[in-house]
Amino acid sequence: MELNAQNQPGGKVLVAYFSWSGNARVLAGQIAEEASNQGFGADLFEIKTATAYPDAYNECIEAAKQEQNSNARPALSGGANLAANMAQYGTVVLCYPNWWGTLPMGVFTFLEAYDFAGKTIYPLVTHGGSRFGRSLDDIKKLCPRAVIGEGLSVSAYGTNPKDAAKVTAPNRDVTAWLKKVLP
Ligand SMILES: Cc1cc2nc3c(=O)[nH]c(=O)nc-3n(C[C@H](O)[C@H](O)[C@H](O)COP(=O)(O)O)c2cc1C
After folding, report:
1. Structural domains of the chain, ranges and CATH numbers in brackets
2. What is the DSSP string of 64-103?
3. Of ligand 1's atoms, which has the minimum distance to the CA of residue 154?
4. Less CB within 10 Å around the terminal CB: N or C of the chain?
5. For a pocket test of ligand 1, which of 160, 167, 173 has the largest count of ligand atoms closer than 8 A to its C-beta?
6. Mean pLDDT across the stretch 10-31?
7. DSSP annotation string for 152-172
8. Residues contacting residue 122 through CB under 8 Å, at least 6 positions apart
9. How close is the Cα of 155 to the center of ligand 1, in Å?
10. 135 lines ligand 1 (CB under 6 A)
11. What's the pTM value of the predicted model, to 2 decimals?
């Protein structure tokens, strides 16, 4: 077992997720539970935009496209407690869907809102075929002083109505990945 200062048993792990149709939410829940079982103090945090995305898939697709085209930084709701506690996390597991080839713009807002210097970020993307897309490069640009650890992409192919996750937990790939990245 390899230990380092940022990532050791008993350390605090932030499991931050953004999810519209539920896949990333289901996997983030699994990660928080399994990290706790592995002896970490794992806290779950939902990255939520102040204005919710439309319930209808086509409208959500369109809203997300417009946000990306304008390089928007949608305001987030909540997070006051997280701001106060951010310093205690050495490790962040970031769960998100691939939206138009990268992170949803609210995740851009999130990554710019906090200081991730010296933290290790493990990205988990759920996607409909494009895996990480450009998201890993974007995370690196948004958090230049963080270490970006090994990521995992989980396929959730098919139209996803709001809150109708296709993935189920426990996902075996997620379990194996977590055992590897959280020593
Ligand atoms: C607005 C929007 C844009 C999407 N863009 C892509 C994409 O570019 N590539 C892809 O593989 N999947 C894309 N998808 C599919 C999602 O990545 C996939 O359904 C994911 O599992 C959703 O995660 P969630 O259930 O946590 O919201 C998109 C879905 C939505 C709603």
Report:
1. 12-181 (3.40.50.360)
2. HHHHHHTT----EE--HHHHHHGGGEEEEEEEEE-BTTB-
3. 21
4. N
5. 160
6. 95
7. EEEE--S---TT-----SS-H
8. 91, 92, 93, 94, 149, 150, 151, 152, 181
9. 10
10. no
11. 0.95
